[in-house]
Amino acid sequence: MTTTLPPTRTASASRGAVTELTDHALLHRALRSGLRMAGRAVTGVALDDPCDPARQRELVRWTAGVLVEVRAHAALRRELEAAVSRAVLPGAGDDRGAASDTGTASDAGTASDAALDASLARARRALLVFARDASAGAPLLAVALTELAALVDDRLDAEEAGVLPLVDAHVPAAERDRAVRTARRLLPAGQDAFTLPWLLDVCHPAERVTVLRTASRSARLVLRFAGARHGRMRDAVLGLPW
């Protein structure tokens, strides 16, 4: 079986270098690269790359962590879209004309969320098979991750072109922070031990200095204790000695 991953896309350069672990550009970069790393790794396993039980466990852990973040990001996007609607169309819920005007966009968003839900469900099922039997699960998981990566790329492209400029223009910083907190409450306990090193790992060297300087004390503690573990997991996913 062969699987071709779509070409990697990057966030719009106009958004500039990231300065905080909570920057949307950084999360988008991590989502794109995280899915592709997993997809390439399991495609290699499907084509008989070495995958001992230790690497298999790390691939499962990495993929599971990224899938949780894809789900959390969908929740964050809904929160941000709602914040934009409140800012741009106050009282739209009571205005039939405004509701009619936004109906097409709302329907498209619902369809996109449904497609993401279905693709995530397929990836989770394939991951369970891979966790039990790497040889049997790798072809299924490679296909599922390839599909999911393409879908997430399209959603992030649309978000960068449409949602985030409106958020920047109309949503106060306090409300953006509230949206982030609301979305991340859905995450399992301990997810930050995966997420924070994962985000820092995709920073460019010049960005890392600023990001670490602006990180909270609790975030720095997580990075201090989880960073080495994350590095070993990443190397295992890449098939490097660790």
Overview of this structure, please?
The chain has one domain (24-86, 112-238): Up-down Bundle (Four Helix Bundle (Hemerythrin (Met), subunit A)). The model is unreliable at 6-14 and 93-102 (pLDDT under 50). The protein is mainly α. It has helices at 24-46, 53-88, 96-101, 103-132, 134-170, 173-184, 192-201, 205-214, 217-237.
Topology:
Layout: H1 24-46, H2 53-88, H3 96-101, H4 103-132, H5 134-170, H6 173-184, H7 192-201, H8 205-214, H9 217-237
Helix pairs in contact: 1-2, 1-5, 2-4, 2-5, 2-6, 2-9, 4-5, 7-9
Protein name: Hemerythrin HHE cation binding domain-containing protein
Biased composition (Low complexity): 99-111
Region (Disordered): 91-111
- Radius of gyration over all CA atoms, rounded: 19 Å
Mean pLDDT, rounded to whole units?
87
Molecular shape: globular
Contiguous low-pLDDT stretches (5 residues minimum) are 6-14, 93-102
CATH fold naming: Four Helix Bundle (Hemerythrin (Met), subunit A)
H and E string: HHHHHHHHH
The number of distinct structural domains comes to 1
Reading off the top of the CATH hierarchy, the class is best stated as Mainly Alpha
In whole angstroms, the N-to-C terminal distance is 28 Å
Count every helix, treating DSSP H or I runs of 4 or more residues as helices. Answer: 9
Give the helix/strand class: mainly alpha
Multimeric organization? single chain
Share in helix: over 70%
**Largest sheet at a glance?**
none
Named at the architecture level, the CATH assignment is: Up-down Bundle
Biased composition (Low complexity): 99-111
Region (Disordered): 91-111
Organism: Geodermatophilus nigrescens
Protein name: Hemerythrin HHE cation binding domain-containing protein
